[in-house]
Write a structure and sequence with these properties.
about 270 residues; alpha/beta; Cobalt-precorrin-4 Transmethylase, domain 1; Methyltransferase, Cobalt-precorrin-4 Transmethylase, Domain 2; 3 domains; 5-stranded parallel sheet; 5-stranded mixed sheet; 11 helices; globular
Length: about 270
């Protein structure tokens, strides 16, 4: 017996259409509506599997107004599925607004397991330990990139980046962290899939003529650290009895780094 839910979060392939699960296909056929970022992109997938379910756009620019529409459908007993253009919804994609409303209104929600660029990437590259920090897309300013690269110098730091910006982002990281080791993957699960694991100098030279495709990247932890290591400073301040919010104010003031970023690290740093 299969339990029925009101709302389904359904991952879609990140490249190879065959990577969709049998359950995902079943749900997309069975629901009454599919909420998707771009109806044209989702329609290609649906056409490939001869799925006739109606698509309705749901993206960050219309999600608040769409919430009311989907709530009205659910109140009529309809079923709705949420998909992103590729991968798992709400991993750097909209969806949090509607999920919060569904839960507060008593509707049942479930998420299907499936394709995700981050987990696909992690299962493909060598690394020490299981811990990692995923920050979504890198910010645009050099200062913010430098702050994050410094803040998570002792973590496996994973991020998405566009092919137009990746080389400049890597050059900024090099200024901050030196010739650190990275892993870079592009076009995962697609025909021209490629993964390069090497130091920054090698990767920058390797892609000196440009790079194409969807990109996931990881900066490996620095092998050495010094007194400027933010995590060490956080621990030292915690030992002295300072609270997380106080630490965020102190370090952001002294070192001109983002207070919220320091606070998030402080929350996850044990003494």
């Amino acid at each position: 017996m299969v339990r029925e839910f009101d709302f389904y979060i359904v991952p879609t392939p990140i490249g190879n259409l065959s990577d969709i699960t049998l359950r995902a296909l079943e749900i997309l056929k069975r629901v009454d509506y599919i909420a998707c970022e771009d109806t044209r992109t989702t329609q290609k997938l649906l056409n490939h599997y001869n799925i006739q379910t109606k698509c309705i756009s749901y993206h960050k620019y219309n999600e608040h107004e769409r919430v009311e529409l989907f709530l009205s459908y659910l109140s009529e007993g309809k079923k709705v599925a949420l998909v992103s253009d590729a991968g798992t919804p709400m991993i750097c994609d909209p969806g949090a607004v509607i999920i919060e409303e569904l839960i507060s209104n008593g509707y049942t929600v479930t998420a299907l397991p499936g394709a995700c660029a981050v987990t696909t990437f992690l299962s493909r590259i060598p690394r020490e330990g299981e811990e990692f920090t995923f920050i979504g897309f890198m910010p645009r300013s050099e200062k913010q990139i430098s702050e994050l690269a410094s803040l998570y110098a002792k973590n496996n730091l994973i991020f998405y980046e566009s092919p137009e910006r990746i080389l400049s982002t890597l050059k900024t990281i090099k200024k901050t962290r030196g010739n650190v080791k990275i892993a870079l993957a592009r076009e995962l699960s697609k025909l021209f899939e490629e993964v390069v694991v090497n130091d920054l100098d090698f990767v920058l030279k390797y892609y000196s003529n440009g790079i194409k495709g969807e990109i996931v990247c990881m900066i490996y932890p620095s092998k050495t650290s010094d007194d400027n290591d933010i995590e060490i400073k956080i621990r030292n301040l915690k030992i002295k009895g300072f609270k997380d919010k106080e630490i965020a104010v102190i370090l952001s003031t002294l070192y001109d780094i983002n207070k919220n970023n320091v606070y998030q690290v402080a929350l996850n740093t044990d003494v």
